[in-house]
Amino acid sequence: MDPDQFNTMPTRIKVALAQMDIVWGDPAANLAQARSYAIDAARRGADVIVLPELWSTGYDLTSAVDHAEPLTQGIFAETARLARTQSIAIVGSCLARLGTGRIGNTAVYIDAEGRTRAIYSKTHLFRLMNEHRHLTPGSELAFFDTGRGMAGLAICYDLRFPELFRCYALAGADVVFLSAEWPHPRGDHWRTLVRARAIENQMFIVACNRAGRDPDHLFCGSSCVIDPTGAVLAEADEHPALLFAELDLATVSKTRADIPVFADRRPELYS
């Protein structure tokens, strides 16, 4: 893409975060919830709606083999249809069949025309919820063009690995979309780490957590949007909510120019 052409593109994105109370192991009920949130978000002018981690099933991993579907079928096809009919991009993770018996906790970015623009399977599996027993970790990051700026995808526990977010920043990401099921009692960790990833990488973090509880965990909600300076643009409490914020992606380059962190890095000392 010609850089001059890219610079003429709109740089503002209105995002919506659907802090759902996921129904355990019930894709149909959760799709109905997601559809309702997406319709509302599109009506209110959002360009993108972000759903939580494993939004179609929750952490019903003992039934992962039954829930997982190919990336072009089932819940993924329904999500693409929803994006297309409502003219809104959709981000969120579900259980995916990755071939040869592998199942991933896999996030997709589907654009407003229903096209899958990015696929990311969670690279850091969370042992405290037995992901390592049921899922295969991803082996690639997802860095992609939204049409208004560059973005990356991450999922929940990835938030504890700053290297992942730094990779996106060094590649030129303006924003990372993060889907999560982050439980109590670590809500303070969630709020601190989301802001830290935004501040240290001077980019937007759009972080959608779930609300409610499953058979084993109470979740802390607190979905939020953080700007490149660490300012909180929007934040939910612990209850189900549809949250909105507008991102001006032009502030990323301004922030990086004001405090030239990337120019002052010493990578020869880090390896």
UniProtKB/TrEMBL annotation:
Keywords: Acyltransferase, Lipoprotein, Transferase. GO terms for molecular function: acyltransferase activity. The keyword Acyltransferase applies. The keyword Hydrolase does not apply. Pfam families: CN_hydrolase. Residues 13-249 form the CN hydrolase domain. It comes from the Bacteria. CDD domains: nitrilase_5 (cd07583). Belongs to the carbon-nitrogen hydrolase superfamily. NIT1/NIT2 family. This is Nitrilase/cyanide hydratase and apolipoprotein N-acyltransferase. It comes from Thiocapsa marina 5811.
